[in-house]
Hints:
Blueprint: H1 7-13, H2 24-30, E1 42-49, E2 61-65, E3 76-79, H3 83-91, E4 95-97, H4 99-106, E5 114-117, H5 122-125, H6 129-132, H7 150-159, E6 161-165, E7 171-178, H8 183-199, E8 210-217, E9 223-225, H9 227-231
Parallel strand pairs: 3-4, 3-5
Antiparallel strand pairs: 1-7, 1-8, 2-6, 8-9
Helix pairs in contact: 3-7
Amino acid sequence: MAKKVSKRTTKLLEKIDGAKLYSVDEAFGLIGDLKSAKFDETVEVALNLNVDPRHADQMIRGSVVLPHGTGKTVRVAVFAKGEKADEAKKAGADIVGTDELIEMIQSGSLPFDIVISTPDMMGVLGKVARILGPKGLMPNPKTGTVTMDVTRAVNDAKGGQVNFRVDKKGNIHAGIGKISFDESKLKENFKTFVNKINKSKPAAAKGKYVINAAISLTMSPSITINPAEVMDIR
């Protein structure tokens, strides 16, 4: 049985030409008209890539710092000790610790959005890898969250860092700002994110890299963007 489309969604769909591949400028010129929620909706980008992440040489994973941030307040936990723990606190980390932080996680308390660790603490983190891993919270060198430069890592996390990872179907999703942002800032965030994805193209990926691209709001249908234009963003 087909799912019934709400009146709100029907009205929003009327504003979008479902058969059209919009340019980036057209898409971001239209996205503001799709706002329907009472809260400040997130602008989300979705890309479908021509990769097979089952092969290690086609896995795409990394991070990028958006020039205008995400509009989200990010809570950062840092696994560090000694001088590095002091450095993390000074940088503005919300939680800093070692064994006590492990105990907090094991008890089911996860009051943070990003976890950063110095390399020497990764052995300790193994105790909670099964908890953090499935939630996408396990620190990883590819996302800059395993590092001795904890000041930079905390600043990046607080300042608009977006971590990404392709799923098993070749999709990447990310929030790139809030609908309250200026259109120019949203476009710049989008282009910065896409540029990073384009630069992350695996050598093993052949043919058309971006199959589909779209933007949407938290509560809106999506606007399809011409993938050829997306692939040209550098």
